[in-house]
Amino acid sequence: MRNNRLPRRTLAALAAAFLLASPATAHAAAPPPPPVTAQGLRAFQQSYGLTPTGLMDTATAHLLKTAPDSELRAAFADPSDLGPEQLAHARTVIGVGKGADLPEQGQVIALMTAMQESTFVNYTTPVDHDSLGVFQQRPSMGWGTPQQITHVPTASKSFYGLPSPTSNPGLLQIKDWESMEPGKACQAVQRSAHPDRYAQWEQFARDLLKREGPTVEPVG
Questions:
Q1: Backbone dihedral region for residue 208 (phi beyond 0: left; psi -120 to 50: alpha; all else: beta)
Q2: C-alpha R_g of the chain
Q3: What pTM does this model have?
Q4: Residue 145 CB neighbour total at 10 angstroms
Q5: Mean per-residue pLDDT pooled into runs of 10, the chain (220 residues)
Q6: N or C: where does the chain have the smaller number of CB atoms within 10 Å of the terminal CB?
Q7: Distance between CA atoms of 44 and 82, rounded to whole angstroms?
């Protein structure tokens, strides 16, 4: 459960400890210019005292995972609020669905799930138990090895229920998933302790698919 009780700058400082150490240089390179989009991600970073690059880094990723849903809904009100790395992962999720000729409803459900679970951050280090990747799948629950789970095409196939390293039921193995409420279909696959949180991202997922879907190539 996301629940921040410490001051924002304290949280940002703690998150920064997760960054990989790099040798100090006399003249540090200037940060890259913010992308035209990613307004929401930049606003989120700024609210925690981070440099608003609009690009993903380890400190931002940690804070996104622990932020309350209300902050995430405010930051990511529109698909254009996603950073480029987040958007690339979302497009992969769409591409895997298209590659399997899944209906758009299935792709919407997958996008809702990944947005709730990770805001499309491919976590390679667990923040919650041993959950990893964009779908926060757990090696201990049979979703595959960490390497498989953090490979976004493979994780997407596992969620959809396509041939993959896991024997866990994916979306296609859920009886009558097409007629279920999308949020309940997400929960049927994920078996989350917070089943009602997926539904809040349905419109976001539909808008994201409408915007990005036409230009995404199928992923086999």
A1: alpha
A2: 17
A3: 0.85
A4: 12
A5: 49 44 36 66 97 96 96 97 98 98 98 98 92 97 97 98 96 98 98 95 98 96
A6: N
A7: 11
